[in-house]
Amino acid sequence: MHRLAIVRRLEAVGFRAWPAASIQYDGSWQVRLTAGHPSKRLNSVNPLDPSDHGDVETRVERAAQRFSAYGRPLIFRQSPLAPPQLDAYFDAKGWRRFDETTVMMADIRKLDLDATLDHLPVRELGRYVDANIQVHGRDKSIKPGLTEVISSIRPSSGWFVIEEPGAGPVATALCVHDSDMAGIFEVATRSDRRNKGYGREVVTAALRWARMRGAEQAWLQVGTTNEAAMDLYDRFGFEEIYRYDYRQAPDNSADE
Questions:
Q1: Is residue 162 one of the residues assigned to a domain?
Q2: How confident is the model at residue 113 (pLDDT cuts 50, 70, 90)?
Q3: For the residues of the chain, what is the DSSP string, one character each?
Q4: 70 shares its domain with 153
Q5: How far apart are CA 127 and CA 132, in angstroms?
Q6: Are 15 and 181 in contact (CB under 8 A)?
Q7: Is residue 253 part of a domain?
Q8: How much is the pLDDT for 251?
Q9: Do 181 and 13 touch, CB atoms closer than 8 A?
Q10: pLDDT tens across 122-166, in order?
Q11: Are 164 and 186 found together in one domain?
């Protein structure tokens, strides 16, 4: 049985930490759309009440019209808050299930975060975004959209960049401090600098910053097939709280 109270809280801090440009509601279904960024979390329908499953077919079609107006494929993000009847509807229609993600938490107060060099967050958003794009290997065309998303984050956020002399940025992370919670996002190590400890270094820096600001619990989301990241977070003491995945009609195509 899922602990729905903590799921609801993590979903709420997650929405604040990675804000969509447009948010509308159909009952308790949160419709998130962002023209400038293709992230599925920013472009998906998020059902938030297991009991809200009335008139499914009409509501799914209504959501499809909204997504079509944005030029986005219709995607549902199915957490434990989604009604089982909605998944049954998708199963009957042949909707595919993809990109399963685990949401994990760790008690920052219990973590040993002193065995690494300290790195302060960078101050210039443009510098962080450029490093993020380089480290992730993303197309530079995403810069305006990524800048808009990060600049729209309302809770305090720290932008972390690890640089190697002569090599430039090699690892990045984004930490969002929201009350006693700290969300870790956008963790990446440049492909030619992996397995050198930079991932652990940048996550440690982010967690230390959050703990110094009063955060008590850290949380993050990671794809269940990302074995390297899962191993890293396991060594920090993160434990799974719940999982979510995405559903999409067979005749649709999502931006990955």
A1: yes
A2: confident
A3: ---HHHHHHHHHHHHHHS--SEEEEETTEEEEE-TT---GGGSEEEE--TT--TTHHHHHHHHHHHHHHHT----EEE-TTS-HHHHHHHHHHT-EEEEEEEEEEEEGGG----SS---PPBS-HHHHHHHHHHHHT--GGGHHHHHHHHHT--SEEEEEEEEETTTEEEEEEEEEEETTEEEEEEEEE-GGGTTSSHHHHHHHHHHHHHHHTT--EEEEEEETT-HHHHHHHHHHT-EEEEEEEEEE-TT-----
A4: no
A5: 9
A6: no
A7: no
A8: 81
A9: yes
A10: 999 999 999 999 999 999 999 999 999 999 999 999 999 999 999
A11: yes
Are residues 127 and 236 both part of a single domain?
A: yes
What CATH number should be reported for the domain holding residue 194? 3.40.630.30
Q: Encoding tokens for residue 244?
A: 């979510």
**CB atoms near residue 165 (< 10 Å):** 5
pLDDT at 253 over 80: no
Range of the domain at 48: 4-100+244-248
Query: What distance in Å separates the CA atoms of residue 62 and residue 232, rounded to the nearest whole number?
Result: 41
pLDDT grade for 2, boundaries at 50, 70 and 90? low
